[in-house]
Amino acid sequence: MGRPQKMKNLVGIFKDKVSLIKATLLFSSKPTTSFHIAVLRATTHRHPSDPPPLDAVLSLVNHYRPSTSGVLIHALLQRLHGTTSVYVALKCLLTLHHVIIHGSPALKEEILGYSTGPLLNLSGFKDDSGGDTWELSEWVRWYGDVIDHGVGLSRRKNRGGGERLGLLINMVEVICGAPESLHYQRISLIYEVIKLVGEDYRMIMREINALINQFGKKRIQDLSNDSIGELLNDLKRLQNCREKLVLMFLNKKNDGVWELIEEVRKDVEEVKERRENMKLLKLERSESTRVAENRVGELISVSVVPPRRNRRWLDVEWNTMVASYG
After folding, report:
1. Directed axis angle between helix 69-81 and helix 105-112, to 10°?
2. Once rounded to an integer, what is the mean pLDDT over residues 66-70?
3. Which residues are bridge partners to 303 per DSSP?
4. Per the annotation, which location comes first and is thus the protein's main one (predicted)?
């Protein structure tokens, strides 16, 4: 380890100690102090090989009344938005994600209601202090986006049918947008991130599987043309993510969901193609009928002209007249 890195680690340790002392002195309420100290200990500047004590934070939440859980969320967000360290940021996100997945229903509701907009909004985060931090910053931005979309998806859990399917596929696309530097999974923090996101991914794919299973051939045929187009587009978006997701979650079972997606996509394309062919056939028949009617009209139009030799009758000059029958 080089001298600059050692100095950086020492500065990080110093910052952590100062933050702990401030939390001890500034907060008078025991729950508030306990939550801030637990967050600080879980989100140190230490090397990423040290996993954060996630269960310790969750145990503390369960120890106090659900009404105090807002203090934990505030402490986590304050720590997250007050740092430029990728390691601190990743540990904050891991802690929050762990609480969302494994916390009590009351705690999850508290998180969902904490803000009406994006909870994290880390699109501008970057740590350019050197080494791998620039590329790891991309992981922080992506992970924050995954959590924000997951919270948004939970807020809209009562949406049904095609709309719900579209929201789930949006979430899959966000997960699929992980940085290309998947080799960073060798770092324990990134490995933990992929593991937690993998839990979300499996739950989402199970729900997608259940929704798509409802689309039998008869139901597909009953859909409107607009709904057919939206469903086909959603299925293609999902299939475009398959290769990247397989790379990310090598050992995760899919329970035949990709095969089901392909089967339903073919059924939808078949119905869409049949409707387009029928529409084209109707247009061709309509055009043929119009042309035939015009030709019949032309054929029954007859010119009535007096004989050339007797152009006058009763001293009245004849003009050509056209009579149409029908």
Report:
1. 50
2. 71
3. 322
4. cytoplasm
| CA 156/CA 173 separation, integer angstroms | 17
- Give the CATH architecture of domain 3-170: Alpha Horseshoe (1.25)
Is residue 309 predicted with pLDDT exceeding 60? no
Which residue type occupies 279? Answer: K
Helix (H) or strand (E) holding 194: helix 188-213
How far apart, in whole angstroms, are the C-alpha atoms of residue 177 and residue 171? 10
Least confident of 117-121, 196-200, 273-277, 311-315: 311-315
CA distance 136 to 142: 10
Half-sphere exposure of 252 (CA within 13 A, CB side): 23
What is the b/e burial string over 80-106, where b = at least 16 CB atoms within 10 angstroms of the residue's CB? Answer: beebebbbbbbbbbbbbbbbbeebeee
Q: Are 190 and 179 in contact (CB under 8 A)?
A: no
| Lowest mean pLDDT segment, chosen from 44-58, 138-152, 198-212 | 44-58
The mean pLDDT value for 289-312 works out to 57
CA–CA distance from 47 to each of 66, 125, 179 (Å)?
A: 33, 19, 21
236 pLDDT more than 90? yes
Half-sphere exposure for 313 (CA within 13 Å, toward CB):
8
Give 53's Cβ-side CA count (13 Å radius). Answer: 11
With 0-12 / 13-18 / 19 or more C-beta atoms within 10 angstroms meaning exposed / middle / buried, residue 205 is: buried
Convert the pLDDT of each residue in 160-182 to its tens digit: 777 889 999 999 999 999 998 87
Residues 6+ apart with CB under 8 A from 170: 149, 153
Single-letter amino acid code for the residue at 140: V
Instruction: Determine if the pTM surpasses 0.85.
Output: no
Terminal C-alpha separation, the chain: 101
Please work out, in degrees rounded to the nearest 5, the angle formed at the alpha carbon of residue 140 by the alpha carbons of 134 and 145: 135
Taking each helix axis from N to C end, the angle separating 3-26 and 30-42, rounded to the nearest 10 degrees, works out to 170
